[in-house]
Amino acid sequence: MSAASNTARANILGRLKAAPGRPGPDLAPWTPPTYTDKLVRFRQMAEANHAEIHDVTAETWPARLATILNNRGVGRLMVAPGTPRGDALLRAAAQGVPLPTLVPYDQPVEVLKDALVHRVDAGLTGTRGAIAETGTLILWPTAEEPRLLSLLPPLHIAVLEEDTLHDTLAAVVRDQGWAAGMPTNALLISGPSKTSDIEQTLAYGVHGPKELIILLIRKGE
Amino acid sequence: MTTTNLAATNTAAAARPAARPDTVYFFGTCLVDMLYPEAGLAGMDLLRHAGVHVVFPEGQSCCGQPARNSGYVEEAREVARAQLDAFPSDIPIVVPSGSCAGMMKTHYAHLFEGDPDQPRAIAFAARIHELTAFFVNVLGVKLADKGAPVTVTWHPSCHSLREMGVSEEPKALLRQLANVTLVENKRERECCGFGGTFAVRQAAVSTAMVSDKLASVRETGAGTLLSGDCGCLMNIGGHAEKAGDGIRCRHIAEFLMERCHGG
Amino acid sequence: MAADGGMHAEHGPRFAERAPDALNNPQLRRNFRRAMDGLMAKRAAQFPDPAYWAELRERGAAVKARALAKLPDLLERLESRLTANGVQVHWAETTEEANAIVLGILQQAGARTVIKGKSMVSEEMHLNAHLERHGIEAVESDLGEYIIQLAGETPSHIVMPCIHKNKDEISDLFAEKIPGLERTGDVDELTAAARRVLRERFANADAGISGVNFAVAETGTLVLIENEGNGRLSTTLPPLHIAVTGIEKVVEYLDDIPPLLALLPRSATGQPITTYVNMISGPRKAGEKDGPTAVHLVLLDAGRSRVYQDVELADTLRCIRCAACMNHCPVYTRVGGHTYNAIYPGPIGKILTPQLQGLDAAGDQPHASTLCNACAEVCPVKIPIPDLLVRLRREAVRPTETPATHLPPLYSTVVKDGGAERSWTESLVWAGWRLVYTRPLLYRMVTRALAWGGNWVPADAPLMRDWTKARAKPRFKPRTLHDLARERGYLNEVPK
């Protein structure tokens, strides 16, 4: 911090501390909603957010994905080696499942920037869970599964397990104790990139993915 | 248009006398006093017809809102204090204006912050009732329509809606009248652009607002616009008159009195 | 009572003088009316249950009020957590200092091009112009901001900056400014064109600059919300990220974020949540493959600590910039954002601008309101905007002096340029009003005099003129209500 910034800091904090004290109110009671059927709510909200949901099983989802992507003509799918989802796809491809060309996100963005920005059609990530209230996916990017994988490719595919559905953000932040250790970047994603800056008309894919596909691994299937 | 209701905490509905009073004060308001006295008189007559004794204290003048809204708080407080003096008995004070009622009900406590009269101002505020809400919520009046068929629309003042929390009561009164068809204005909750000194300080914006308001009133097809606030009536009615529009703008008390008791 | 004009000539036209330009532009009026109607309907649909809305906003207001009560403490905790997380924290008292800090960071990194996420604080700083003067190109990436940057304009709304423009105007603009683009009226094509141009800008930017919606002291987390993905790109793809924010954006706990997130997008655009909620707690860690290697946060005061001195006015600082107040404002809807000639338009601007810039520059703004309370009704953090408008009207004519107990005694009045709208004629009018309205006998004499002669006031008399341009003259009645009540036998006193 520069000397000027130090002076500013002292002056700002000095003024704030010299101000008359005021009581901080107790937090008013607030009960975030709960849902008897979280999955129904999640589906309804995620679809309203323009996400496409496919119910899949833990064993066969790579094959299902292959069908979905081939129907769309996806040529290059970026994956994260070293993650359960990325590795499952790499294994499936090796076993002959007709997946698109898999491009590993295995080097820093500085090396892969051109591919990421221009030359992949889709990116696949796992999820840490989802929020029923708003149809929202929770992603905590990691060293293995970087941040841009869910952002730069025009199609984002996210694998979600039904067991990891929560009622609300409030519940998941509290129950999982997020405050004890936040990652470099935590993300909530609710649908594909969108804008309504031009005459309040919705348009998708303005900067991030134009489409979001959720592969929903059903419980016990 | 939003349909959100504020919680009842800061609205008139919160404070209701437990029993029906037999005597009430009437606070006429300065605008009614000079420009719409027949509306004030109708309000008192309606109360009398509902079996309530009405007291109109001579010492009353104005709630103080014009000065307060212009930033002249001390002047507003002194005029407000004169009202505290003018209504000494602990009985309801009925006001034929949501705006003046809102000033007294929701702003007096703050206006008298740090003043020895603050407890008196708070007690005074608790006695304030907007006229139509008083008829419906306290007196539970039943009206019998004696007039010819007519179509009307309702204009709630902003302060009646958002300070006094009076929204359905005046419409409920109008719906009691067999020969009156109430057509709701779909922009009912939008301000007419009066705003006291706003109408002259920001004359161009105010004009745009009142002309939009009149256009939305015309869309209802009603020949009569009713309101519980004479500021709005002076604005919308004045604009209608200037525009050569045939829409009649009247205070609801006068209208009810005329229909139910032949004026 | 219109304040005397001449005194303020040096500040250019006042609100009332600027308004007719917008009022007389039917296209602009239609654009705003249509947009605001849509936003109001969408917001209302998000809060169908009044009881839940009341509970949620009570919580939101309390979270912000509690954070403000502990503001200096929370800022220190935020700084120490961010520093521990590897984020460099800078403090700026003025927008000039903030500009110098941002420029210094960029120059040190050798940055030439910057991609920006939407940030009202950077608008407050006029950051783009500052960087441009020093040879650094800053490109706005939020579609609305990009459009107005192409047009050389300023935002007219704090959430939807180009809301004053319709599709045709944007089609013309893109055809003119984006090389190789045929004129198109298709929103998807316009959006795709912006994506193509801005993708390259993102890929080549040396730094990203963003605002902050909430800064969490407990965890040292910057929370940014957006729909487009440009905010995530600005804060992830370039090697350097600089966030700029006002000091009032800090909240205490991560648990405070969910209620605020439940309020903000619903109030702003009628969405249950934005597409992206981006929570940043530090730069790229060893082994991570993307994200900026350096993250800076600039904490800007620019008048906020002065607003903080007054416990009532400090409610202004609860604002979470959702814009619901302007979406519901009957004045804003008619004149649009540019009429305010300020960074923050609409009701929140009418209380914020005079406090940040002073009553000399913006003392007329609190009067650009009918006090209809539509803003207070929808504010998700319960800022009593109409009461603060009245308070500022008062400060403009009868300023509160800074209590001697305050340290340091930098200012003579609580609000900058207190008393700037003082006028002797107006004071006299209210003194006379008070005299008459506190003395029942005098009051009845005056009202009777008006009943007799009030209608003789000519329609073109001062003040009356402004009224009668659009309305008939008010008519004094021959007998006042005081007279009629006595005649009808109503009692003066409660019978004993």
Automatic annotation (TrEMBL), chain A:
<dbReference type="Pfam" id="PF02589">
    <property type="entry name" value="LUD_dom"/>
</dbReference>
<feature type="domain" description="LUD">
    <location>
        <begin position="41"/>
        <end position="217"/>
    </location>
</feature>
<protein>
    <submittedName>
        <fullName>L-lactate dehydrogenase complex protein LldG</fullName>
    </submittedName>
</protein>
<dbReference type="InterPro" id="IPR037171">
    <property type="entry name" value="NagB/RpiA_transferase-like"/>
</dbReference>
<dbReference type="InterPro" id="IPR003741">
    <property type="entry name" value="LUD_dom"/>
</dbReference>
<dbReference type="InterPro" id="IPR024185">
    <property type="entry name" value="FTHF_cligase-like_sf"/>
</dbReference>
TrEMBL record, chain B:
<protein>
    <submittedName>
        <fullName>L-lactate dehydrogenase complex protein LldE</fullName>
    </submittedName>
</protein>
<dbReference type="InterPro" id="IPR004017">
    <property type="entry name" value="Cys_rich_dom"/>
</dbReference>
<feature type="domain" description="Cysteine-rich">
    <location>
        <begin position="24"/>
        <end position="105"/>
    </location>
</feature>
<dbReference type="Pfam" id="PF02754">
    <property type="entry name" value="CCG"/>
</dbReference>
<dbReference type="GO" id="GO:0005829">
    <property type="term" value="C:cytosol"/>
</dbReference>
<dbReference type="GO" id="GO:0016491">
    <property type="term" value="F:oxidoreductase activity"/>
</dbReference>
<feature type="domain" description="Cysteine-rich">
    <location>
        <begin position="152"/>
        <end position="236"/>
    </location>
</feature>
TrEMBL record, chain C:
<dbReference type="InterPro" id="IPR037171">
    <property type="entry name" value="NagB/RpiA_transferase-like"/>
</dbReference>
<dbReference type="Pfam" id="PF02589">
    <property type="entry name" value="LUD_dom"/>
</dbReference>
<dbReference type="InterPro" id="IPR017896">
    <property type="entry name" value="4Fe4S_Fe-S-bd"/>
</dbReference>
<dbReference type="GO" id="GO:0046872">
    <property type="term" value="F:metal ion binding"/>
</dbReference>
<keyword id="KW-0677">Repeat</keyword>
<feature type="region of interest" description="Disordered">
    <location>
        <begin position="1"/>
        <end position="22"/>
    </location>
</feature>
<dbReference type="InterPro" id="IPR024185">
    <property type="entry name" value="FTHF_cligase-like_sf"/>
</dbReference>
<dbReference type="Pfam" id="PF11870">
    <property type="entry name" value="LutB_C"/>
</dbReference>
<keyword id="KW-0813">Transport</keyword>
<dbReference type="InterPro" id="IPR003741">
    <property type="entry name" value="LUD_dom"/>
</dbReference>
<keyword id="KW-0249">Electron transport</keyword>
<dbReference type="InterPro" id="IPR004452">
    <property type="entry name" value="LutB/LldF"/>
</dbReference>
<dbReference type="GO" id="GO:0006089">
    <property type="term" value="P:lactate metabolic process"/>
</dbReference>
<protein>
    <submittedName>
        <fullName>L-lactate dehydrogenase complex protein LldF</fullName>
    </submittedName>
</protein>
<keyword id="KW-0411">Iron-sulfur</keyword>
